[in-house]
Amino acid sequence: LAKTTQPISMDSYEGQEVNITCSHNNIATNDYITWYQQFPSQGPRFIIQGYKTKVTNEVASLFIPADRKSSTLSLPRVSLSDTAVYYCLVGLSGAGSYQLTFGKGTKLSVIP
Amino acid sequence: EAQVTQNPRYLITVTGKKLTVTCSQNMNHEYMSWYRQDPGLGLRQIYYSMNVEVTDKGDVPEGYKVSRKEKRNFPLILESPSPNQTSLYFCASKPVSYNEQFFGPGTRLTVL
């Protein structure tokens, strides 16, 4: 099972770029890395997914080194509304199994 | 509107009284899953289903049952609830070929 490890919390000022790193040392060959955002009392919301190198969409970038043992979610110019918990998720997809394990998440606090 | 719905949203019950939390999705997704969320523990997967009549255990299946008789529905059954099952429960769905999960609004369960 691909276990993930993230920092428990991070603080950032508005307008700064925030990088949250997730380690997943035993990621499987077929696994993708997915990041979710969760606000209090709401279900998580998909942010971005990647397999290797760099992926960018309208809200974030995801950097994955060649060995894929870690990944970094980058949020450009955060605002107060980005205060949330961010989860890194690595899918165990071998042999038709889709057991998905969330880590404990990183609580990001954006300060005015 | 594409969505995952859960009912009830809030439930207070007593130990041993069987209950069912319903989950329904209108996106024709093959994959559905149940998670529980507890403070400090993140999201933990209870059960998942790859398609109709195909279910499998997640990380914390003890004390729960599920069924998948129709593609759109994935009820979570607690045959004999106990206080340690007090938690916030989320249902999610996604297509098998992509890792973006769509989460329901959550069900807050209290077992006295």
Task: Please specify the SSE layout and strand pairing.
The complex is a heterodimer of chains A (112) and B (112).
Chain A lengths: L8 E5 L4 E6 L9 E6 L6 E6 L2 E4 L4 E4 L5 E6 L8 E9 L6 E4 L3 E6 L1
Parallel strand pairs in A: 1-10
Antiparallel strand pairs in A: 2-7, 3-4, 3-8, 5-6, 6-7, 8-9, 8-10
Chain B lengths: L3 E4 L2 E4 L5 E7 L5 E8 L3 E10 L2 E4 L7 E2 L9 E3 L8 E8 L7 E2 L3 E5 L1
Parallel strand pairs in B: 2-11
Antiparallel strand pairs in B: 1-3, 3-8, 4-5, 4-9, 5-6, 7-8, 9-10, 9-11
Task: Write structural notes for this entry.
- The complex is a heterodimer of chains A (112) and B (112).
- Chain A is mainly β and 112 residues long.
- Chain A is 0% helix and 50% strand.
- Chain A contains no helices and ten strands.
- Chain A has strands at residues 9-13, 18-23, 33-38, 45-50, 53-56, 61-64, 70-75, 84-92, 99-102, 106-111.
- In chain A, β8 (84-92) and β9 (99-102) form a beta hairpin.
- Chain B has 112 residues and is an all-beta fold.
- Helix content of chain B is 0%, strand content 51%.
- Chain B has strands at 4-7, 10-13, 19-25, 31-38, 42-51, 54-57, 65-66, 76-78, 87-94, 102-103, 107-111.
- In chain B, the strands form two sheets. In chain B, strands 2, 4, 5, 6, 9, 10 and 11 form a seven-stranded mixed sheet that branches. A four-stranded antiparallel sheet of chain B has the order 1-3-8-7, with no helix packed on it.
- In chain B, a hairpin with a 2-residue loop joins β5 and β6.
- The radius of gyration of chain B is 13 Å and the shape is globular.
- The interface between A and B is medium-sized, with 23 and 28 residues.
Number of helices of chain A: 0
Q: What radius of gyration of chain A results from the CA coordinates?
A: 14 Å
Taken from the alpha-carbon principal axes, the silhouette of chain B is globular
**Which residue ranges of chain B are poorly predicted, with pLDDT under 50 across at least 5 consecutive positions?**
none
